[in-house]
Amino acid sequence: MTTATVEAENAKEEIEEIVSNCIRCGMCKSLCPVFSIMREETVSPRGKAIILDKKVYDKVVYECSLCKACEQKCPLGLKLCDAFRKARKVLVEQGKETKENREMIKNVKEFGNPFGRVSGKKLDKLYCC
Amino acid sequence: MKEKKQIDLIAYSTDASMIEGNAISIIFPESVEKIQEAVRNFNGITIRGGGSGLVGGAVPQNCVVLDMSKMSKILKFDLAKRDIEVEAGIILDELNSYLDKHGLEFPVNPSSHSICTIGGMIATNAVGSRAIKYGRTSDWVSRVWVIDGRGEVIEAGKTEIDDFSGLEGITGVIFKARLKLIPKMKRTASLVSMSSLSDVQGLVMNLKLREDVSAIEFFDRFISGLLNLPDSNHLIVEYESEEGKMKGEDYIRVMNLRDNIYPTLASAGFTHIEDPKILIHKFSEFAEFLQENKIPFFGHVGSGIIHPVYRKGQESLIRETIKLTKKLHGQVSGEHGIGLSKKEFLEPGDIKIIERIKKRRDPLNKLNCGKVIDLKPQKKEEEKKLVDAADVEVNDGDEGLIDFQEDTKQGGVDNGNTN
Does A50 touch chain B (CB under 8 A)? Predict the structure, then answer.
């Protein structure tokens, strides 16, 4: 197993620990900026938690601003944004991240910035997935 | 219409009840025509608002889900007449936030106000904490627009609203409503500790006589402990005057405390909630039973709605509680509705009434089938017509169809709503 694979497996366990405690009350929806625009359960924090609880890792976790507003509203204080961020790590490991994310990683590696237009200092190690 | 995606089906398979179901397709209508198209083309349709229900009302059972969330516009507003026309998918807090600018509000206030939709509130005839002063949602709805089971638009005035309000979507898809409003009230609250349950009962009876009291919420010792409050029963009394000690931010904080009681209990393992409604002078007798059996409870005690909560495996205690509710001449469901989980507790009289309305408004049993009531199987020729119609979005022929036979096997003839 590569380090990345081990990290992805650990991430899965950590995600499970968070989403399995979700009681589906839906209070997280009330502050979620993505849900307020899209108005679809699938992109709401509750929807994503239900999907991850079924161990389905889908690009929908990128439809999140990682603002943590849902965590403010969650009566259990679940770290939902952490779970979504970790799910992105799993997708990257599985090669299932979004095209945009793949492009961004490539640009950071190549140009030192996510846009790929202006040359910057090349990083030794990539910290962001 | 949006294409069927596997992850959508997973996300829409449950609601706040945590009951698991199975969606076969999700539709997000943004016009009346789209709703009509869905009703005409599909056999089994589950209507969904905020998904905040606790009895599985929005849980699909091999049905197409009609998510009304995108129909959320404010259509007409008359400040002078204090009424407003809205689409059904508007969330209560969104509506009140708009009205706030005009010094008005919609007075019914369920604890899910930040996510529940007006359509869902009408369909369940939601109650909430201010029932002692403002009653139920239907008291504040002057007109609803509905798509019935034939796909026809119905405009229902005051006399016909009862065919839809409180019937949990089994008679029609509510897509628009005209609501009555009140001037925005300045509210305060007090938190009262009381160790004796009979003292609670006495105080509640006295408080109900006051015109400025808009809500009386109770929670017991166990819940007080979970909320880091002193070891005692507590009442939150909401006033529409300066009488309450908590004002401004303190008022908001104490009301948020009340909104979070059930989620806090659920996180402590009490995932099953009931909503019996009892007469206030029977409160202490009912409460003593709950206390003796170590069942935590809270509720809108002012309007007699109590929420006992249970852990998994406490079914016999639930039955005992319902038995006592009936013995004390109370109602089994005061506000959550019947949905999937309470069908067995309906009274035969309620069953007959609701069955009659259902057959009039949705004779082919397309809408929220399996909820509240279970109708007998359709005749073969009617089924064939439905099979022919259900071919638009669902790929595999039978996928779009409800298994009426299976539904009947599960529950027999049963229906109604005690709201």
Answer: yes
